[in-house]
Write a structure and sequence with these properties.
By secondary structure, the chain is an alpha+beta fold. It has two domains: 141 residues, MM3350-like (Structural Genomics Hypothetical 15.5 Kd Protein In mrcA-pckA Intergenic Region, Chain A), CATH 3.10.290; 39 residues, no CATH class. An eight-stranded mixed sheet has the order 5-4-3-6-7-1-2-8. A hairpin with a 7-residue loop joins strand 1 and strand 2.
């Protein structure tokens, strides 16, 4: 029977922190973990990604770009197996959103539906907002909605709310990840 990893995933370089706590089976692949993170943070799987575990790089194979990275089809249990262990997940190599993943506990499988989001704080930055500096501009614009200089930015990001995090919506999406995420193979 698989073990359950309790993970805390935090987007780096943003204050106040944006984070999620997830329960995942230790038998999933890095590709599956990527999809779970995408859904948990409201990302849309629109960009490349990779994992860095003590300088061991794991990424999507690309025939046009040779590298020594390991394939995302590796099981996470091959690399992540100890309480307190950490790694970095990077999403969107343009905006370069780095997330710290920490195993905060290892628990017995309780025969419930996994993966499961059990806690979190704050909404993730919008896709393609320009990394931390672009996100900070959005935060500033939302704080100063009456300033006409912010009109274009506010119109572009619409009803974006910094604080909204709906755990029920995340868990519903985790049940049907293929209905939620963009698939590069559809291009």
């Amino acid at each position: 029977m698989s073990k359950i990893l309790k993970l805390r995933i935090t987007i780096l370089d943003i204050t106040p922190m944006i984070w999620r706590e997830l329960l995942v089976e230790n038998t999933i692949t890095f590709e599956e973990l990527h999809k779970i993170i995408q859904i948990s943070f409201g990302w849309t799987n629109s960009h490349l990604y990779g994992f860095d575990i003590n300088s061991t790089l794991i990424s999507v194979p690309d025939e046009e770009f040779e590298n020594d990275d390991l394939n995302v089809n590796n099981k996470i249990t091959e690399f992540l197996f100890s309480k307190g262990q950490k790694c970095i997940y990077t999403y969107d190599f343009g905006d370069n959103w780095e997330h710290e993943i920490e195993i905060i506990d290892i628990i017995k499988n309780e025969n419930i539906q996994y993966p499961k989001c059990i806690d979190g704080k704050r909404n993730s930055p919008p896709e393609n907002c320009g990394s931390t500096p672009g996100y900070e501009e959005i935060v500033e614009a939302l704080a100063n909605k009456d300033d006409s200089e912010n009109d274009e930015l506010l119109e572009w990001y619409g009803e974006y709310d910094l604080e909204i995090f709906d755990i029920d919506e995340v868990n519903e999406a985790l049940l049907n990840p293929d209905d939620y995420l963009f698939d590069f193979n559809d291009l």
